[in-house]
Design brief:
The chain contains four helices and two strands; from the N terminus they run ααββαα. β1 and β2 form a beta hairpin. By secondary structure, it is an all-alpha fold. A two-stranded antiparallel ribbon has the order 1-2. It starts with a helix and ends with a helix. The longest helix has 38 residues. It has a single domain, classed as Non-ribosomal Peptide Synthetase Peptidyl Carrier Protein, Chain A (Orthogonal Bundle), CATH 1.10.1200.
Length: 162
């Protein structure tokens, strides 16, 4: 009876081994780190855009709607039935303003890239060489490990193809 349990356990471990191997490969590729950095930067950028919209643009719209918060506009049908149409108007305006601010930012970045490319073509600006900083000990160690893993992976692939 115990022998059957041991076989089941080893099958589960072998099946999980492929999963963990795939997970290890996924984590070690570096794309996940770039994705995490982009996510964090996006969250920080969201705070800036929301502040620009909520603290700079929205007060002007509140002024247009009679000086009160758009959020506070409502239609009271009965004591228990209130339609908060101001919240809906606020949400729509907020979306449109955020989209507009992002559109302007993308437009500015695109224009700046275009101008730089034109200047590079004309020779007005010399392309700069990327600055390569020396690796720290831990970065060098990680680079060496990555190279060894890649070599090992290539060897395994050649063995499988033979």
């Amino acid at each position: 009876m115990e022998n059957a349990k041991e076989k089941k356990t080893s099958k589960v471990l072998k099946a999980g081994g492929g999963f963990f191997k795939d997970f290890k490969a996924f984590i070690s590729k570096g794309n996940i780190v770039q994705l995490a950095v982009a996510f964090i930067m996006g969250a920080a950028f969201t705070t800036i855009v929301n502040s620009l919209v909520g603290d700079i643009f929205m007060p002007f719209f509140n002024l247009i709607f009679g000086g009160s918060n758009i959020d506070d506009l409502k239609w009271v049908i009965t004591d228990n039935l209130v339609i908060n149409y101001g919240k809906f108007i606020f949400a729509v305006l907020n979306f449109l303003l955020v989209a507009f601010v992002l559109f302007l930012i993308v437009k500015l970045i695109t224009r700046a890239e275009r101008n730089i490319k034109k200047k590079l073509k004309k020779g007005e600006v010399a392309p700069t060489e990327p600055v390569v900083l020396p690796l720290t000990t831990s970065e060098q160690l990680l680079t060496d490990i990555k190279e060894l893993l890649l070599k090992q992976e290539k060897k395994e692939k050649t063995k499988q193809s033979e």
